[in-house]
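Complex record, two chains
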Amino acid sequence: MATISETAIRPVVRKPIDWWRWAGRFFLTFLLLFTVLPMAWMVLTSVKSQFAAMQYPPQWWPTEPTLNNYFKLLDPRNRIGQEFLRYFWNSFYVSLLTTILGVVVAVPAAYAFSRFRFPGRNFLFFAVLVRNMFPAVVFLMPLFLLMRWMGLVNTHGSLILTYLTFGLPLSIWLLKGFYDNIPIQLEQAARIDGATRFQAFLFIVMPLSTPGIIATSIFSFIGAWNEYVYAYTFLSRDHQMTLPVGIQRFFTEFATDWPGLMAATFMMSVPVVVLFLVLQKYFVRALTEGAVKH
Amino acid sequence: MAEVVLKDVMKNYGSLYAVNNVSFTVEHGEFVALVGPSGCGKTTTLNLVAGLIPMSGGDISIGNRIVNDLDPKDRDIAMVFQNYALYPNKSVFKNLAFPLQMRKLPKAEIEAKVMQAAKILDITHLLERRPRELSGGQQQRVALGRALVRDPAVFLMDEPLSNLDAKLRVAMRSEIKRFHHNLNATVIYVTHDQLEAVTMADKMAVMHGGVLQQYDSPANVFANPVNTFVASFVGSPAMSLIPLDVVGKGTDVALKSPEEGWELPLSAQNARKATASSQGTVVLGARHSTLKLHKSPVAGSVPGKVYTVEPTGDVTFAQVFVSGAVVNVSLEPTAPIAPDEEVFVEFDQQRLHLFDGQTTNALKAA
């Protein structure tokens, strides 16, 4: 038997430097810094004191890190804490309701688009997309007038309705892709095995479309959570404000409290980031589902 | 177990008739194969029996009960799908248990029945796995298992073997046949593979363009195809069909090649059939095994030219051009024959088929 291993006789080839590859890496590094630095600066500023934040030249690394800003925001005993928690709750409540209602509507709608042939199916399906072809601001005045006519101005209901009109088209499209990928034979098998049409949907199709439902939920939630213009227009009372509007109003009333603002902003991004990190594998799956055959 | 009766069953999508006036009866314990090329309506017919799509007309009864308007779940049927349709998020055990759970059986009974079915199909060691962790053959068994746990009146199978590789398909074919034999089950089996139908079924229903062409035992369908479609569909290689003109009168009748001018005298029996043709044209049909090749003309032979020679080991198939049509002839593997050779094809008057050139239906002696 030969004892020389194959690696020993493999010729050494010096690879030429691949400049394109290095250019790509450089670009990606730049992109990474571009996105991460503002966030890092946000976190760093949020643990500085007001004095340290305003220093020039800036303190790159806080010399006396403090969590006071966070305590202040989360303490329901002072005015700042009360308002911040109220805004947080408002945002959470509006986003959650938007998400739940969105799923409740989008799931049957997407299923119907995927499974049933009915007159006007294609027209309706593309009609839901039309909304997404215009910038959101275009609808600001019409929707405001509509809400006023319905007496919904200065209620959270107006926001939930508006956010639904933004979130639903994408949710329906995403979910339809999911349902299209679930073989109809599974439902047929379930119906033969003794399930009604609805039971087949509930027991067989729903569990399989969970990733899609989760992904669309995140979409709706993030969309509603971050929305600013409509919340700013439709709501005028202090206690109704959602976080994006509330933070901005709250901290510009007197002098800008930069560390406090950054702490509030960080707190605001936490739910979104957590949601995204926990559920990101579903998210990616939802967006790529159907791209290739399994 | 029960018999299934289809009477004038129709299914149309607008002006397209997917299933057109199909009637046949599946006796209790019979294995019936619905066979035909893709798009012939066989799967639609099965789905109508299953109740997965609504009928446009006619009646279907299962076990003396009209089921036209019943939901699939109330028809007492089980179905095996081409892609198996195993529930991907459930373990094998739960897949098998699902039909029983939907019928609200007690837990202990479900367990007992699932174990029994798993034992029959030899899948007890797979019960905890998910369907995607199984091989194609194992998935096939699970699908069969899910059908048989419930002891339904009728088993419906929609091309259950077509996703398997060739070797496994042959093995599963005999297993399904055995399964039918052991359970004495009523089975309706859809396939596009006539060989599966011929080897497995008690009766086969040949469909074409939504219309039932012939419903008989495989042996009868093979021996007496009712028209040229059935003749060319059943059997491998297919029956060779040559369109010819009828010349002569009385008992002295011959078939004449419109292209090459030769004449083939017919026996008295065949002559009576040929004269019954509607337009004086017939299609001559012959199975490969009834034909003989000669190097020089003999009585009752016609000239042809060899196109290809295909040795398969046991037997060699030659394709011969006769009057513009391709004729399959089986030969000894040692037969000395080469492409482009001029040969003479001898027909067996007892075993040739005559079809009407116009209607394509089999001719009967007048």
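Note: Confidence is low (pLDDT under 50) at residues 290-294 of chain A.
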